[in-house]
Amino acid sequence: MSASRRSGTTDELGPDEPERDGGAGASGPDDPGGSDLLAALLDGMDAALCAFDADGVVTHWNREAERILGWTAAEAVGRRGFAGWAVRSADAEEVEGRLLSAMHAPGRQVHEFALVTKDGGRVLVRTQSAAVRGPDGKPAGVYCAFSEVHAQIDLERSIALSEALFEDAAWGVVLVDADLRPAVVNAHAARALGIGRTSALGRPLGELLAQGVEELEGALTHVLAEGPPPAPAEMWVAVRTAEGEQRRCWRSGFLRLASPLAEEPVPLGVGWLFQDVTEAKQGEQEASLLRFRANQLHRAARAAAECEDPAEAATVHLDFALAGFADHALIDRVAGPPPADDGAAPVRLVRIAATPSGAPGPSLLTGAAGLPVRYEDGHPALQCAERAGTVRADAGTMSADRAREWALTRQWPADSVHALCAVLRSRGRTLGVVTFLRGAARTRFERIDATYAEDVAARIATALDLAETTTRGA
Q1: How much is the average pLDDT of 259-266?
Q2: Is residue 111 a contact partner of residue 126, using CB atoms and an 8 Å limit?
Q3: Residue 78: pLDDT above 60?
Q4: In the β-sheet with 139-148, what is the strand arrangement from edge to edge?
């Protein structure tokens, strides 16, 4: 009697297994541990397994085979072939022939066919079979591992999906480990980060991004602790490039990765998928900004129409334009007759309106004395009047003290670091200059800002021209 029979596992391993003489590393007939280990290994497999001897008799049948087909090991082991119980009689000869042919074929053979369950149902399985060699090297039987086709297809699809994501995906895919370091980076993500796929592995996220690291790490930490968010998140980051830092908006989704082999979910990291939506977000922001500014111009025109004094109407336009656009604004009127376009005569400007430099409030009319502002040669406002075009100026990257000195020298509020001067033109004449100023908390003026300032300047110029005509008529 074999050791397996004495240990009570005969049915699962097969009856009347041949005894082996104890040798180096072998389990002899008095060593039941070897059969117990073999039984545990077979029953712990994720795939169903059965084996046949050289005559086609079933010798092994594990628990996964029992789960799929319903036949227990006691019912399966010892039967000759599958005919009449695990395969329809009409298919038995073909199925057994294909399985047993593996005894005389090199390597493994893969087949698909339908097996019959104990309750009479049919299940399509994919099998891998190979020969079992005896001590003399001759075929002694066949082992057959099989699984349901849909489960195999699901596995293959999962593998194919992973391969496609990391090779051909049109969005970035990064697997981040529990220490918040990239473990796998696909080609798209590597291009977005401006670094090679292998160069990014294991490095802190702070070395890959110039800005936005704190927000990203916070999101990853949350996913590890609480699970994925219910919707994608849009994050602004700055990526280091050869041309300098570039701000990008990435629409990101996160998935917590857990080991399927652990009894309790053990976080392996986070799957981070992102897509660059910078152009779309910038388009949305610009459209929203244009709508707001158009609404401000409309409101300013309605409010200015109710002003009896055209000069007051000019300050109304200035106050409405200031909202969300700049921190300070000034209106300088040309002293004396409007300058000729040839630029032969120097331009002198008189401050006639300005926003309060302290607490916020409406613009104030000034310049009753008519004294010119002490602008130095080359001042942006003078350049604007002389060229009859918009001029931008910035303090640049100088220190706070030097930026303060830069602003005061130009007769602007001390906290000004960005300036935009737009010419006031009406009836073909230069009437003055409107200057918009921003502090360090705002970005520099862009082309879209210059266009808006020019629209406001045209309305202010019309009001000032009307004020001049009214004064002369009086």
Answers
A1: 64
A2: yes
A3: yes
A4: 58-61, 48-53, 139-148, 122-133, 109-116
